[in-house]
C-alpha cells in the first residue's frame, strides 16, 4: 500500500508499506508523469515500512511504463529513501552505484525529517 506525503510540486513523497499492488505502482507512475510534465527536475522521497513484497501481476505494466524513464534519468534530482529494513537500504545503495549521476541518500527511520528536508533542498544543519 502507499500513501502520498505532501512535500512540494517538484517532490514526489510517498510512504510505502506492506504489499505493493499494481494499483499502487500505477498511482506512483501517474504522480511521476504529472511531476515530470511540469518540472525539469523531480526529486523523490520514499519512506518504506515493512515491505512484504510486490504483487507480481502488476509488474509487467509497471515495467512497460518505467522503461521510457531511462531516457529521462537526467531529470531526477535528489532521491531519499528512509527504510526500516536493511535490504531496502542496501538495494538503494546498489541502485545509486548503477546511477551515479542521480543524488541518492539512504536514511534510517529516526532520520526521516532530515531526509525529507534534504530531498526538498533545505540547507544542511551540519
UniProtKB/TrEMBL annotation:
InterPro entries: SpoIIAA-like (IPR021866), SpoIIAA-like_sf (IPR038396), STAS_dom_sf (IPR036513). It holds the Pfam family SpoIIAA-like. It comes from the Bacteria. SUPFAM superfamilies: SpoIIaa-like (SSF52091). This is STAS/SEC14 domain-containing protein.
